[in-house]
Amino acid sequence: MSILQLLYLASATLFILGIRGLSSPETARKGMNLAAFGMLLAIVGTLFHHEIVTYKWIIAGLILGSAIGVPMSLWIPMTAVPQRTALSHAGGALAACLIGVSEYYRHGISLGTGHMAIIGVEVLLGALTTTGSLMAAAKLQGLLPGRPITYPFQNASTISLLAFLGGFIVYLTAHPGATHLFYILLACSFLFGILLLVPIGAADMPCVITLLNAYAGLTDAAMGFMLANRIQIVTGSLDGSSGLILSILMCRAMNRPFTNILFGAFGKVEEASTEVLESKKKSVKSLTIEEAVNLFNEAKRVIIVPGYGMAAAQAQHAVRDVADKLKALGVAIKYAIHPVAGRMPGHMNVLLAEANVPYPELFDMDDINPEFSEADVALVVGANDVTNPAARHVKSSPIYGMPILDVDKAKKVIVFKRSMAPGFAGIDNDLYLLDHTWMLFGDAKDSFTKLAGALQNVALQK
Amino acid sequence: MEHAIPIPELYIFLLAAFLGYQLISRVPPLLHTPLMSATNAISGISLVGSLIVAGANYNHVSNILGFVAVTCSTINVVGGFLITDRILKMFKKVKK
User: Fold this and answer.
1) Tally of CB atoms within 10 A around A283
2) Do residue A47 and residue B51 have CB atoms under 8 angstroms apart?
């Protein structure tokens, strides 16, 4: 037993070193190998645990889990990473939730107050994270509509359901034998996860997916408390704080108060008046690929601003291609990444890395913003609200105060866009109306492929 | 069954949360996606608890719940480490 505890201690140390490795792309892989080794130690050590008498369920679970986990990781496209992440939160939370149910089933009425409370919390958090994450994954995959679905008395009903669930747990701590109530708690917690995610739109996912990450971590820590398994308390706590920090960063970048999102009090879409959109459509300037090429004449510095639209159009390779052609013409290229561009934190970085963009060319918002005034051309591909200068000075705008990329300060701006449809905030983008902004309408992948071809011709002529 | 409040465990939880805050704050936004898959893989340590429930001589219901939990946690452990490595492999300083 003490050997196992020492193994767990070693694993916890290796996990911490592993996460520390993620502070730089150069040390990250080595760190994760350490963490994986730590995991192996913990698992192999546990297989010799004295309470284990039969291996049939264990072997079946390990084989089935690997059979699902390996293809889910090696063959899914990089654009599907947010869905996969949501699914893994669901899996982790479900595991902890079921172990909580198993413990209740075993001990039931003999559970002490502390244990009953922790099992109640574990089951509540685990169940709501499971269904919530499944809903998130379905929305990200497009199986459910990505726009928020609202219904009357939404906040009132979710908050009262949560109050009921809390009440159930309190009652159960005093009367752990109330078996029916426990299973009602379980069922309602699953339902609660669904209700929590229904009103949330796909564009809010960076906030929500990180919050579900925090919940999954807390569920894990609760399971650690229940089993008095200290390594699980450590990992659950690390996972929980990671999710929480990321969630706070995402909320800040989206200009949403963190207190609002804890219980899903968001997803409200401001109604955009279509009339205004129509009138504005007339005043934007659109241009063709050939005209776009001319804008690069004498350009020395170009900044590319990717957003979710790039992922949706799978345009990352075409974008890199244009960057290569421009580099061949002697242009310096940088990429400007807003924290909430895409559907999860770091989404754009991963897609561009996949397209073979060296990571020193990827810049965070705070680092790149001072450079826009020096940029000859800014290319906006599939990003909208995070470039809207209204956030700076229009006090009535729903995105007022949101940190944005200073794209409007570039000398020329080309916006690649499918249509004039507004972004997730449902408002018009003042950037499109500026004198030095041109719109290039069409599918982003298609436009960039054509642009790369046109730039190639320019290079040949020189 | 223990009735007292698990003070040592609460210390561990609290200290790990502070450590987590310090560690995670140093992860650049560049690596936030692999960070999420990495913490997900590591939190698959719930596998160790699930293994015992799936293999212990408690009762059939527990064994089966344990089996499902082992399956889910294994997906996270195996899948989490694999995809984290797959993502991290793509981050290159210079173009090939």
Assistant:
1) 8
2) yes
